[in-house]
Amino acid sequence: MRRVRRQDTAAELLVQRWLRMHGQRYRKRNRDLPGSPDLANRSKRWAIFVHGCFWHSHPGCKRATIPKTNTDFWTRKIADNRARDARKEGDLIALGFRVLVLWECEAEQLGINERSASRLFTLLHPPQ
Ligand SMILES: [Zn+2]
User: Fold this and answer.
1) Are strands 27-28 and 46-51 parallel, antiparallel or unpaired?
2) Which of 88-97, 98-107, 112-121 bottoms out in mean pLDDT, i.e. has the lowest?
């Protein structure tokens, strides 16, 4: 499910601010790359997806609960989303990109939650 929207989510804005604070340049909504990563730097070969917990089914997250009505529909739809995510990530990796998926709920904690910040740092500064 590609979200159709014009505005950045709060989570994406936080990730963008974090990247700028760390002197990183990026482009938004990279439609010419597999899966249209939310943020990417093609010369440095990294891509970030900021995934909505519901649409992409964040494991163990309370925002990822399947609705109690039309359960079959949602289960199938979200399973399709997950399969597509995995395929697009694979395509990006095949193009030589390092890929990071940040869940919306994690990204909203950036600056508070050390773990998401350190995952971002590792993406941008891979061990040699
Ligand atoms: Zn979540």
Assistant:
1) unpaired
2) 112-121
